[in-house]
Amino acid sequence: MSQKESHLLLPVDSAWLALERPENPMTITVMLRVEGLTEARFREFLRIYWMAWERFSFMPVRRAPGWWWEEDPVFSLHHHLEVVPGEFGHQALQDWVSARLNQPLPDYRPLWKFWLLPDAEGGAALLLRMHHCYADGLSLLGIFERLCPPSPQQAPVLYGAPEQADMGRWSRAANAWLRELTASESPQADAARGGDIPGNGGTAGRNALERATWRSLKLVNELSQFLVEPEDTDSSLNRALLGRRQCRWSQPVALERFRHIATATGVTINDVLLSCVASAVRKRLVADNTDMDEAVLHAAVPVDIRSRLPADIKPEPGTLGNYFGTVFVPLPVDGESSLERLFRIKHETRKLKKSWQPGLAWALAGSASVIPEAWRQPVADLFYRKASTVVSNVPGTRDERYLAGCRILEQMFWVPQAGDIGLGVSIVSYAGQIQFGVVADEAVMADPEPFLDDCLQELDLFPY
Q: Which portions of the sequence form the region Disordered (predicted)?
């Protein structure tokens, strides 16, 4: 193929192909409940708006020296939209979505597909499955925000992006990121602090050296802390995976309920949400007869790093790709009260706010596709043996949105768990409400419903 039709994936995108395992595919799942959405409306929506992103007509192909984007020569929307008739009730819909999670996407086409259930009870259900190499959750969220305006009479204004070949992009990104991490500040900043100007004795050089030394020491310290973080306690949450998954999701809960607890306790809403997950995990460990005084358990939490990237490599709004790192938050599973767990989570999240861990994780994950295959498993273990669950927090819009002129009632995301992690918890906010979603490998959790209930029951334990 020509240069225009074929080019290398960025390592941060191809990493999700390099680290993929058959029993734990790296696929993002999105479900929207859309009032009155019909096949004709949605097909037109896909043709005009969705396909404005050229990447959706490309598929990743393994070819030396790595993974390449190649345009599908026989691309047709017919292959990427399936309409499923039937009046699916809540339980039937959850079982049907679980079955789709276990259905592989064909690797001879672009790795994404929509299913539309126009007659589902409570509003049409729209399901999207997409491989992580196309985009991270925030990229997808940004696309839906652009394509789903706040009024049924309003059409999307800014949308779409060309898929451009840029062979040197990753090299520039890596070099700029390292310079940002380790370099001393600019000469102008030195002068502003009394640097090398006549009469100051050359203090700017010493200041620059001190800052470079401090940054280098911080980098070593951050890496050391990441490497020596203890692995999770053996439990039913970290068994060998079977490759069969079940998913469940909650009814919407008013965002104001979480905000009230956060305000009363002086924490953030995100702290309250993570505390709910910690409580549910604790109940699982107690059921396993774990020694709770010695128990260690981490949650892998994706963190957007777009704002931390140097300006010359920061992605443009609406750009597809993977721009997040991962922090491993210790969950206070030994805490016996809801308030103790909440305040300890606050301490851990504050400690990680200034950490370089997300940027380091982003860079290390990106290395997976450019290192020899024999080294990939150690890189994967470095990340995925540090946690027993993935917790993703997807911030949606505060107002209701409309897809193809039809009101979106609910939205739900599930992200892949990666490696040997078999449990994923998704927390999605949209239009003043929050929903919890759980996906679990059957070896870890045959029925995710009780775990989901435990997450929500934690709210009743707060004395506010």
A: 184-205
Report strand pairing: 389-395 vs 423-430: parallel
Residue 392 DSSP SS3: strand
Residue 214 placed within a domain: no
138 lies in some domain? yes
* pTM given for the model: 0.86
In a domain, 411, yes or no: no
Report the chain's mean pLDDT, rounded to a whole number: 84
Q: How far apart are CA 313 and CA 366, in angstroms?
A: 15
High-pLDDT (> 90) share of the chain, %: 50
* 240, 129: one domain: no
Token pair in block for residue 134? 């196309």
Rounded-to-integer distance, Cα 18 and Cα 66, Å: 9
Whether 118 and 62 have beta carbons less than 8 Å apart is answered as no
Predicted local confidence at residue 89, as pLDDT: 95
Q: How many angstroms separate the CA atoms of 279 and 291, rounded?
A: 16
The CB-based long-range contact list for 351-358 (8 Å cut-off, 24+ gap) reads: 352/327, 355/222, 355/327, 356/181, 356/218, 356/219, 356/222, 357/222, 357/225, 357/226, 357/325, 357/326, 357/327, 357/328, 358/303, 358/305, 358/308, 358/324, 358/325, 358/326, 358/327
Q: Which domain holds residue 439?
A: 225-396+416-459
Picking from 118, 147, 176, the residue at the C-terminal end of a domain is 147
**Does residue 317 sit in the same domain as residue 447?**
yes
Phi, psi of 379 (to 5 degrees): -65, -45
Does residue 122 sit in the same domain as residue 236? Answer: no
